[in-house]
Amino acid sequence: MRVRWILWVLTGLMVCHVSEGSRTNLTLAVLLPKDNTVYPWAWPRVGPAIELAIEKINEDQELLPNIHVQFVFGNTGGEDGTCSEMVAPLVAVDLKFAYNPNVFIGPGCDYTASSVARFMGHWKVPLITAGAAAYGFNNKVHMYPLMTRTGLVYKKLGEYVAQIHAQFNWTSRAVVVYMDE
Fold it and tell me: Which of 73, 86, 128, 175 is the most exposed place for a label (fewest CB within 10 A)?
């Protein structure tokens, strides 16, 4: 249901490219690290879900009538597989000029998302990411007008924790941190 809603909104916000017949193409550019599974948004973790969702949407024409959804993938990982703030914007530019996508999915890391999201405001193309949790991404007016974050946002997490403390009249706090490395 959530995938249907997101894609329906996206098709209403943008102009799709006309293809053969009466169907139009909705192209998603997916910008994620290709092999590094340390990140929850890495391609090995979310790629199969993206492919399955696109397959189901294209099979059921009631979901997005006369729309054919397709994707192109860009690896934002550097030589060591980690998010690369140098590679990600270059890959985004390459995909923009080669495929002219209607929407970008990812990247998730703060530094890579920051540089790529600035292009989106200039290109007038939406960007959806499960990452980019840093406070600076709250600047929706000037810096990141077309970025939508679906994951954890620190500001909202802080507001939630403050609300819970107020609700239960808690005045003492402790933080437990577990590092798996």
Answer: 175
